[in-house]
């Protein structure tokens, strides 16, 4: 690790994909500029989706295969294990946990989020999965036949359960709803996913709201309704906590826990930008929103980096997100809220679908289930619907399921 200098042209706080993309954009536009990346993580930037996807299902389980080589390819001084504890926007400096003060010309906050935890000081057999260190710890816990409880039936919980099953664990997936992924998918798809998970040997337990975990010879998970289940290890996917305390303490404008940025990803404070999970940004199709997915982290990090070196680029982008669940996969744009009215279009074999989510008569989200190369068209459908050029009766003809 290089010595930490007293100042840099550009300082990036955070060590995820947004930080990587920002450093690349800065280096491309201003190759002689000095860049520091200050990350609390012990590891450098990696392609984080692989921690719940490819590393479990592919041939190479080593997270080093997902290293983005950020420092080598951008010339940035990468300082891992270096939490930033304060920002002085008047002095244009940040302070690290070990007391170092680092000046900046421009600053990017890409601090992301951390897992919501169940209390403090838990047993080492209770795991989360966000960082490379989390992944290594979980890999060490899992052997063939390990009784594993996954708590959380959302995006991350379902991916972790599939990955652990592929690694040979005996998995029970506990979720709070009536249907797995029932908050995102219509019943037709969530029922199919549940059937596939069951075929793969994953036991599903719905209506389970975790109240606590007792650690004895085995772990005992207790639900709010009094039910209890035993496991060798537990993996908790209870959602994410946005890391915006630095921004709040520095006096940046926030909307709840979200850092408010303009069309160029500038915060309310001069020379400070923000990108990734933590921002509320003006989506050109759907208005002010925030997104916690890799595509947004990459795109916003790149745009912020270019603007930090004098660009005037507007972040006019509606991000996508995606997942693979065994042999099924999907891409999606906008809001996937199963409480909304949906219009489903299936192929003849009932293996691929396009689902439009409507608020009133306007499309606010599109799910492309086993349907590929259609994200640009999905964005066009949302735009046309929002502009009143496309009625709900015309949606079935817009995208062919299966792609």
UniProtKB/TrEMBL annotation:
Molecular function GO labels: FAD binding; NAD(P)H oxidase H2O2-forming activity; protein dimerization activity
Domain Mitochondrial apoptosis-inducing factor C-terminal: 304-346, 348-383
Catalyzed chemical reaction(s): A + NADH + H(+) = AH2 + NAD(+)
Cofactor(s) required for function per UniProt: FAD
Residue ranges annotated for the FAD/NAD(P)-binding domain, each copy included: 8-301
Entry-linked Gene3D superfamilies: 3.30.390.30, FAD/NAD(P)-binding domain
Keyword terms, alphabetized: Apoptosis, FAD, Flavoprotein, NAD, Oxidoreductase, Transit peptide
SMART domains in the record: AIF_C
GO CC annotations, alphabetized: cytoplasm
Gene Ontology biological process: mitochondrial respiratory chain complex assembly; programmed cell death
Protein name: N-acylamino acid racemase
